[in-house]
Design a protein that fits this description.
Helix content: 25-40%
CATH topology: Phosphatidylinositol 3-kinase Catalytic Subunit, Chain A, Domain 5
Number of domains: 1
Mean pLDDT: 95
Low-confidence stretches: none
Strand order of the largest sheet: 3-4-5
Structural class: alpha+beta
Shape: globular
């Protein structure tokens, strides 16, 4: 919907429970290499990193940005920086709090060619830990809906180790690439299409509850903010 290549997924029922089936986007020719492992390959002699450059799990935003521009496998791929910031902006919108360095990467083939992997690992989005009781309570208080929409966390931190609030970071306009990504997002985002997507999810299927009562309204109200 937003013009971003994503992992193909479908809802299903297995063992009486709702599950998400994910199509394998790797094959005998293309394998996944996560950004974590690419960053881990950097030399610690790389200058101007807050943490060691080779810390694969490091989520200092400035270090991640620097690594993207210094990892040889990424430098040769068109659109890597745009993909990173498209994920950053979209994750803020869908309340994805788990975009760590193992949740994006590239697909190399046996000849040493690299391309971006589709976006994957979005399961921890849309406040997915909310229970029916919590949803009912939050629907009764507009301030709580607003909090769920705007009080979004990110896995990334500042040079001082403070958590970054992605919506505030976007609004600050301090990063030109982030601002461009926000512009792309706003050009493509249509609330009516999102509502239609939410409405397409059945309340029940094969006797199993898929979208509990109140969740449809809750998601629409959060997304409207």
């Amino acid at each position: 919907m937003l013009g971003i290549s994503v992992h193909e997924t479908v809802l299903g029922i297995r063992g009486g429970k709702v599950v998400c089936a994910c199509r394998d986007f790797t094959d005998d020719d293309w394998e996944l290499v996560e950004f974590h492992d690419l960053k881990n390959s950097l030399s610690d002699d790389e200058p101007r990193f807050t943490e060691s450059a080779s810390t694969g799990s490091g989520v200092v935003l400035a270090d991640v940005r620097a690594a993207i521009n210094r990892i040889p496998e990424l430098v040769g791929i068109e659109g890597v920086t745009e993909r990173f910031w498209d994920m950053f902006v979209t994750d803020a919108f869908i309340c994805n709090i788990d975009r760590n360095n193992t949740k994006w990467g590239v697909l190399p083939d046996r000849k040493g060619h690299y391309r971006l992997a589709p976006v994957y690992g979005d399961g921890n989005s849309f406040n997915n830990k909310r229970t029916e009781t919590v949803i009912e309570r939050r629907l009764s208080e507009e301030d709580l809906i607003r909090q769920d929409a705007l009080d979004v966390r990110s896995c990334y931190v500042t040079d001082q180790g403070r958590p970054i609030a992605p919506l505030k970071y976007i609004a600050s306009g301090q990063d030109p690439q982030c601002t461009l990504a926000f512009g792309r997002f706003m050009e493509r985002y249509e609330l009516d299409r999102l509502y239609a997507l939410i409405d397409s999810i059945p309340e029940q299927a094969m006797g199993v509850t898929v979208l509990p009562e109140g969740f449809r309204e809750y998601h629409k109200e959060v997304m409207a903010w």
